[in-house]
Amino acid sequence: MRLIAVTCQNARTVTPHAGRCRRFFLFGDGGGPMVGTVELLPEEVLHAGPLGPEHPLAPIKVLISAGMGQDLYQRLSARGIQVYLTQESSPEMAVRLYLAGVPSLPCNDHSGCGDDHEAAEEAAPIPESAGHCQCGHGGGSGHQHQHGRQHRH
What is the predicted pLDDT for the residue at 71? Predict the structure, then answer.
């Protein structure tokens, strides 16, 4: 069974900032109910370092999130972990969409969050297909997010 982790920092919805997330819901690849949760210590967040064999998320094969930086995306991919980015807020529905083969959103440098992140993430190359944020407002000029921060495309 492939283990699927979903970023759920608020314990309700799929959340962005996968690298800083401490709470993950776990699902099997059969599309059934949640099989567990993982709560990371501050020093275990994915942004803090490598995902070694002793890490609580080491067994996962898929990570579903509302957003992550390019650096984390590349590190997870290098470890054989498939990344699936979605705008779906329901963790259960996000897993169903992944299992149904609905395409992932492209990875974006900050996934539309508007935050300033570490220089390593900012320096990572962004594929041309990632020319928009994950907020669903398309490629217009500046716009506001729910958290009140603005960014430009």
Answer: 92
pLDDT digit string (tens) for 79-102? 999 999 999 999 999 999 999 999
- Give how far the C-alpha of residue 21 lies from the chain's centroid of Cα atoms, to the nearest Å: 9
Query: What is this structure's pTM?
Result: 0.72
**Are 148 and 142 within 8 A, CB to CB?**
no
The set of residues, in sequence order, having a beta carbon less than 8 Å from that of 151 and lying 6+ positions away, is 110, 112, 114, 133, 142, 143, 145
SS3 category, 94: helix
Sign of the CA dihedral with 118 first, then 88, 15, and 31 last: negative
* Lateral strand order in the sheet of 82-85: 34-39, 23-27, 3-7, 60-65, 82-85
What number of CA atoms fall less than 13 Å from residue 109's CA on the CB side?
A: 20
pLDDT at residue 108 in the model? 61
Q: Of the candidates 92, 139, 135, which has an alpha carbon nearest to the alpha carbon of residue 110?
A: 135
Q: 2: closest CA among 84, 66, 63?
A: 63
For position 133, what pLDDT does the model report?
Answer: 38
Q: Is 148 helix (H, G, I), strand (E, B) or coil?
A: coil
92's tokens: 């259960």
